Every structure is written in structure tokens, then in C-alpha cells.
């Protein structure tokens, strides 16, 4: 019984780590993508990074409702990745990576919610 509780707590910590790591990877990709753009636009970079910063306190504390509404934040990043993947045929690596990272982020968020439900 105690081993099961310890294993469940380790799984929760692992998933929380994955969620935060995927958010960091998405932020890094967005910074690199904007940095190598033809025109660097700081306002666009701030606008794209702000949704990643909003849920951080709740995610770090492990609040389930933050994980639930944070799953909706994956939609704009998936839409951006898909739109750029279709629209810009010359540069497909960054949008494809963003799309995959956003999808993995959504899966990690849902996995955390499934593991921690009562």
C-alpha cells in the first residue's frame, strides 16, 4: 500500500516535470523562431510568451484546476504551428516542432489530470 502511494507520487512529480519542461521548450522555440525572423518584433514575442507565464504559479503548486484551464492554452500554439506549417512552405521545421511540442504539452496536462483525480 505504501509502495503504491510512493509510486503514484513519483508519477505525479514526473508528469509535472514534463509539463514544465514542455512549456520551457515551447518558450525557447518561440524565442529562437522570432529571433531568426526577418524582422524581430518584441511585442509579438511578449504576446506569444505571456500565456505561458500566466499559469506557472498554479502549475508549480500542482493545482488541478490550473492544469485543466492550462490545457486550453495549447490551442493557440497548435493553431499557430499548423497555420505556419501550411502557409510557409520554405520554413517548416519550427512550426512542425511547435505543433508537436504543443500536442505533447496537451497530453502531459491531461495525463496529470487523469493521474491525480480522486
Helix content: over 70%
Cα shape: elongated
- Which consecutive residue ranges, at least 5 long each, have pLDDT under 50? none
Query: In percent terms, what proportion of residues is strand?
Result: under 5%
Spell the H/E element sequence: HHHHHH
Q: Please tally the β strands and state the result.
A: 0
Indicate the topology.
Elements: H1 2-35, H2 42-53, H3 56-61, H4 64-70, H5 74-87, H6 93-116
Helix pairs in contact: 1-2, 1-6, 4-6, 5-6
Care to describe what's here?
There is one protein chain. It is elongated, with a radius of gyration of 16 Å. The chain contains six helices and no strands. Helix 1 packs antiparallel against helix 2, helix 1 runs antiparallel to helix 6 and helix 4 runs antiparallel to helix 6. It is mostly helical and 118 residues long. The chain has one domain.
Summarize the structure.
The protein is mainly α and 118 residues long. It has one domain (2-116). 82% of the residues lie in helices and 0% in strands.
Features:
118 residues; single chain; mainly alpha
Amino acid at each position: 500500500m505504501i509502495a503504491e502511494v510512493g509510486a503514484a507520487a513519483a508519477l505525479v512529480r514526473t508528469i509535472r516535470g514534463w509539463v514544465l519542461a514542455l512549456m520551457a521548450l515551447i518558450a525557447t522555440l518561440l524565442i529562437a523562431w522570432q529571433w531568426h525572423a526577418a524582422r524581430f518584433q518584441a511585442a509579438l514575442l511578449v504576446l506569444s510568451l505571456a500565456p505561458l507565464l500566466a499559469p506557472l504559479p498554479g502549475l508549480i503548486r500542482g493545482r488541478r484546476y490550473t492544469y485543466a484551464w492550462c490545457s486550453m492554452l495549447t490551442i493557440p500554439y497548435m493553431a499557430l504551428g499548423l497555420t505556419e506549417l501550411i502557409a510557409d512552405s520554405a520554413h517548416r521545421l519550427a512550426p512542425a516542432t511547435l505543433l508537436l511540442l504543443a500536442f505533447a504539452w496537451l497530453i502531459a496536462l491531461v495525463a496529470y489530470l487523469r493521474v491525480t483525480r480522486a
